[in-house]
Amino acid sequence: MENIRPTLRLKSPYMRDGDELGSNVSQCQALLVSHGMTQTNGKPLDIDGIFGKQTEAAVRAFQALKKLMVDGICGSRTWAALEAPPAPKEEETPGEDWAQKLCQYVRSQVGNAYVWGGQGEDLSAMKDPEAWIRRRETSEKNALRAIVFFREAQSQGKDPVLAYDCSGLIVRFLMDSGLVSSDMSSRGLYNACTPISRSDLTPGDLVFRHDGSKIFHVGVYMGEGLAGEAKGRDDGVVIRPMDASGRGYWNRYGSLPLLH
Question: What is the pTM of this model?
C-alpha cells in the first residue's frame, strides 16, 4: 500500500459527505486505504475523489480505531492521524480473517441507532421510520428514546441511519458473510461460542452480560481493552472501554468458532 500514500500535505483539510474535492478527497481515501480501511462490505475503498457514504463510513471506522471523535468528517485531527505511518501489520494466523472483518464491520457501524429487533434496516429510506420503530419497540417509552436518537443523528447529517439491536449488529455481519443463515439472539450467540476467560480475549471474540439467570446482551471485543456494542436506545452503536460502565458490565466471554 505504500506506493499509493500521497506526499502532498493539505492545509486545514475539512471534508465531509457530499464533498467532491477531487485530489483532496482522493488523498484522504488513499490514506484510509493505507491504514487498512475498506468499504463496509469488506471490498477495497474506491479512490474516486468523491466523499460519499463509503468514504464517510471508512473515516468513522478510522476515527474509532484511533480513539478520535467519531463524526465521519475528515478535519485537522483526523487528517493528522491519517498522515501518521500505519501501524505495522501483525503476522496473520489461520482463521483470523473473519474475526478481523467483524471488528472492522463494527467500527463502520458506530453512530447508528439501537432499535429492538433491528438487523441493519435503513431508517433513512423508510417512508415512516418512526412508525416502524414503534412497531418494533417493547414500549412507547423505549420507542420515543430510539426516535430521539434517530432524529438527532439525522440532524447531524448522518445518512443513512441504520437500526440494530445488540445481537442484530453481529448477526447482520454473520449473515452477510454467509456464516449463518438465520437469526440468533444474544443467548444463541453465547451457546454457539466456546467459553473463554477475560484474559484470553482476542479481537473478534464476543463479550456478554449475564444477569444471574440468563444472557441478555452481547458485544464484540475490539482489542486494546475496547468493546463494540449496540448499547441501547440512548447511545446507539458505540465502541468504548470494556469497563466504562464498571468492571462487572461484561461478565461472560466466548470465542465464536464460525470466525476461526
Answer: 0.67
